[in-house]
What we know:
Layout: H1 2-15, H2 17-26, H3 28-38, E1 52-56, H4 59-75, E2 81-85, H5 88-97, E3 104-107, H6 113-123, E4 127-131, H7 137-145, E5 150-155, H8 159-167, H9 169-176, E6 181-184, H10 187-195, E7 203-205, H11 220-229, E8 237-244, H12 248-259, E9 266-272, H13 278-287, E10 309-311, H14 318-321, E11 327-330, H15 343-346, E12 352-354, H16 362-370, E13 374-376, H17 380-392, H18 394-410, H19 414-424
Parallel strand pairs: 1-2, 1-4, 2-3, 4-5, 5-6, 6-7, 8-9, 8-11, 9-10, 11-12, 12-13
Amino acid sequence: MIFLYNILFLLGNIIMLPFFVVKALTLEKRRATLLKRLFPGFRMPRFRGRPIWIHTLSVGEVLSAVTLIDAIKERYPDRALVCSVSTHSGYQVATESLSKSVDLVFFFPYDFLWVVRHLNRRINPWLFLLVETDLWPNFLHEVKKKGVPAILVNGRISPRSYTRYKRLSFFTKRIISNFACCCMQTETDAKRIRSLGAAKEKVEVTGNIKFDQPLIAAPDGETNRLRASMRIGADARVFLAGSTHEGEEAVLLWCFEALRESFANLVLVIAPRDPHRASSVQRMFKKVGLLAPLRTELNKMDAGVIPEAIIVDTIGELRRLYAIADVVYVGKSLVNLGGQNPLEPAAFKKPVLFGPSMFNFALIAEMLVREGGAIQVDNRDSLLEQVKVLLRDTERSRLIGERAYKVFSTNQGAVARVLRVIERFSAPRGPEACQDP
């Protein structure tokens, strides 16, 4: 299988080469990662002993893994930890949020056999942990061939991915067989990965480590300072839309203009999932005459100038910005892309709204709605109506926020369960290590 994969992978890359070249020349984030993923390990330091290698795809996976990585660091203080990422934004957040926990942050290699082999020899990992699902056949095959236990952490298989993997079952089963253990978020995820070929004894349900994200303290003084740094007055109301995608900002602009008729002191804060889109979002707001500076432009504005909307173009700041919100909309959910993590605003006791497309966080969304900690809207009209209700009824907003926080706080413990799995591989032995003694 791996031979056939390499032939297809090489042919596919040759065919797509012109596209990759154009992307590398036109997109800054591609230029920033291309050579570092083609030639990883260059000038990489030598580690004390064999390190634990954690791979986190991008920003969301990095942030969800912080508590787990801190727990591993505490459990194995003498073991080096290294963290790989696949995206430029993920790298920026990892270098900032994991600087005290890991010995090195670097870019995950492209899945060319010679690149993967070189990096595996260079790092010589003791364990490999993959956070969520970023499956690369060559890499996982080489890790297993070297006798390194690979553990899938916070495993999740969405309905869309499950259908795709089923179509490629010949490849999928062999890729999954490289894992020594699969720690899945839910029983549904566990059933799906077993039906895709994972051995029953290699699969455990450990829960979702996103519930174990570190709490960011938000005392009134700090929240007030954050509001002041964004030129948001003490009496202003804040409608914050986090991790938005193309197609959603136009809806939010429409809602905001309608809301301002009833709430003159309302400020809209929009944080696009890709900060590189912030300037195009800003142009959309400027076209209708709104004063909508970028987050990084605020300190350059004349004193006394009060923004009507703020477009967040920074990386890694969104989580703490939820502290200033009165109502939160979680993006990627009014477009059919599966949503973003609603637990981040829930951790700040904020009333949460999201659209109908939440398949990437289906269980969390279902739990929040069922327990009264979130409201799922169907379209722009229902979004507008629900925001109006929450801004008018502050007591209802407070209760929804409290319920959201309760869902967040009472479902923690996944990190401890994953750590117990890791401990069973302290002396790597075989598939049976996945089972409780």
